Amino acid sequence: LHTPVIQCIRTHRTNTWWDEHLTEDNASFLKKVVTEEYKQQTTDKLNPLKDEPWPRHEWVEGSRRVGLVAVKLGMMPVWTKSGERHVVTMLQVQDCHVVKHLSKEEYEGHTAALIVGGKNVSPFHRPEGYLEVFRNAGVPPKQKLTTFCVSDNAIIKPGTPLYAAHFRPGQYVDVTAKTIGKGFQGVMKRWGFKGQPASHGQTKTHRRPGSLGPGGDPAKVFKGKKMPGRMGNIYDTTHGLKVWRVNTKYNILYVNGSVPGHRNCLVKVRDSILPTRLENNKNPPFPTFFADGDEEIPEDLYDQDMFQFGEPMAE
Amino acid sequence: MAAACTSRTRQMMGLLRILRNFSQNERLLSTSVLRHNVASDGPPKFTPPSKPVIIDKTQKEASLRRFLSPEFIPPRQRTNPVKFSIERKDMIQRRKVLNIPEFYAGSILAVTMTDPHVNGNMNRFIGICIQRSGKGLGATFILRNVVDGQGVEICYELYSPRMRKIEVLKLEKRLDDNLMYLRDALPEYSTFNFDMQPVHYEITGDVPVNLLKVKMRPKPWSKRWERPKFNIKGIHFDLCLTPEMMEHAQKWAEPWRPYDMLKEYDTSSLEEHIFKEVQENLRK
Fold it and tell me: Which CATH number applies to B70-283?
C-alpha cells in the first residue's frame, strides 16, 4: 500500500510576449487571421434566429432586463423645442455581446445574471483563462466584462449582439464607470471641506481639515473620518439620466448631463432603478432589440421635446 | 443624248467661269472704288478687329473666397473622430435651414432672435463681433454695441434654434482676432447705429482689413492689454503708455512660445478635408 506522495512540480516562468519568438511574416499573418476571425464571428452572431434561439418573453412590470457596455465619446449641447439648452454625453456601443449566462443557483443570489462584454480587443496580451470564456461563446475577446442581474424572463443566449436601440429616447438610465483618478488629494478637493481664511492672522493653515472630532470622551478618531488620500479611479454611478436621442447607424446614445470617466472609457449602462422614473421605462424592447429585420427603425430616434436640426424654424 | 448632256455641262461650266470672273472682277472693282474714294480723305485709320470675349464660367467658383467657419475645425484632443463627424452632420443640417454667412471678429452683424418676452416675438440686435469661440455645435460669438451710453455685449449661439436671421452689415477684419479691448477703448469705437444699412462686399478676393488703431480710456483697464501674451496690434499704445511702461510689459514676454513643438497644431490638411466634406453636403 503506497501512501500518496506529493511530488513538487517545477514550473518554468516564461516572460515572453506573443511576438518574441515569431518572424515578422508569422506575426502579420496571425494579426490578419485574428481580424478575419473576429469579422466571421460577428457576422455569424448577427442572425440569432439561425441556431436555436432562446424563447423571447413579453415585458412584465417588475422584470429587469440587460444593460449595455458603451464607450464615452464626448459631450454636445442639445436644445428643446422651447429653446432651453441642455448638455448631453455621447455613448457609443461598440461590439457589445452577451458572453455568459449564470442561472440563479450559479450566481448564488435570488436572480439570474448575464455577463456582457464591451469593446473588441486583441487576444495576444490576455491570459488563456480570460480568452476561454469568449471561445465558449463564439465571440471575439472584449476589453470590459460586466454582470447584470436579470429576471428569468429576460434571459438572452450567449453570443447575441446588443445594440444602442435597446434604449429608446425618453427612458431614464443609470451609468457606471471608473472615475478619473486625481491621485493623492487634500481634504478640500476630496471631501469639499471649507478650509480656513486666507488672511486675518492664519499661520500656515489655509487648506487643512482642522479638528478631527470631539475631545477627551471618546479620546480617539472615529473610523471613516474624512481625511486626505487617493481620490478617483473608483467605480461610481450617476442615476436617472434621460436618453435624448439614439443613433442606430453608429449605435450612439445621447444621455443627459455628465457621466463619470474620461473620454474613450468603457461604461456600464442600465435601466434606472429610481422609483420616480419607473413610469418612463415602461414597454421597452424586451429582452433586447434584435436587428433581425422585423422592425424597420429610422436612423435617428429623437425624444419628443428635443429640437431636431433639420426641422424648419418653428417657435 | 450623251452629246447633248456634255454640251449642256460645257455651257454650265462656261457660265460658272464667267460668274467667277465676274465676282473676281467685282472684288477688283470694289477695292479699286474704295481706294479711289479714300485717297481723297487721307490714310485709312487702322481699326483693330474686336477681341473675342472669353467668359470663363469655370473660373467663377475657383475665385470665390474659400471660407471654413472656425467651429468646424476640431480641437487637438484625444477624442474619437466619429464624434466630430456626427457633430458636423448636425451642423450642416442646421446650416441648410438657417443661412450662417461668413464673418470675422471686427465685422458688424445684425442678429434676429425669437424672444417670448417681446410683443412681436422677434428681437433684433446690431453690434460688432468681438470674438468667436467654441467648437462644434456650441459655437458662440459676442456682439458689442453702446446703447444710450451703456455698453452692451450679447453672446449668441450660432446653432441655437432661437436664431432666426444673421445678416452681415459690414464684412471686414481687424488687426486682431479678439477685440475684447474695446471695453476699455473710447465708446465711439463700439457705437453702431441700429438703422445701419448693409454695405456691399465682394465675394471674391481678400477680406478688407481695417487698420484702425483704437484710442483707449485712461488706465486701469480690465486686462493689461499691453502685455505680449495678448499680442494686440489694434491699440494706439503711443498715446496712452510711455516707452518705459512698454518695456516693463515686455518682462512677461515668452520668447520660447513660437518654438514650442508640443503646442504646434497644423490644421491645413484637416481644413481641406472638412471644407470639401462641408461643401459636398451643403449642395445635396
Answer: 2.30.30.790
